[in-house]
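SAMPLE LOG
Freezer: B-3
Tube label: C17
Construct: single chain, 165 aa
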Amino acid sequence: MEQKAVAFTGPSGSGKTTLIEKIAKRLISQRKIAIVKHDPSDKAVFDREGKDSDRFFKTGAEVAVLSPSRTSLFSHRPRTIAEVADLFGDFDLLLVEGMKTLPLPRLGVFRGRIDPDYLPVLQAVAIDDSIPRPLPSSLEGIDVLDLNDLDAIINWIDAHALPMK
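STRUCTURE (predicted):
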């Protein structure tokens, strides 16, 4: 199977992580899924203060932690999405949370209101009943999906995900 990717964007608290989690859980028995999450505020922590990998990372070195069930990479260098995909190795579908500037098919997740600032980078929106109807005309040309219809969202992904180059 060809490696493909799709991205998810939306305001904090909109349900992006929950949606990606549901998609991954649904597909993981049929496909190899990889996920990249953008951390624009650099707040993710990967080990507890004072533990070995934390101490190694604080030296400025690139650090890999290998265990029987996982591999963790701690890097001081920003990576491109292609470099990260290479690190994953074999996968079928890469789900990317955030990274609005990546040229990937992008699904916006919204609850309560649709933020028009996101619309220029979106090909689809996933919304629920908290979005007032009628929908704004600014959604013209953008696919509108039900946030609670996982099958429809997966079908959209299958139709729109782009091959990794």
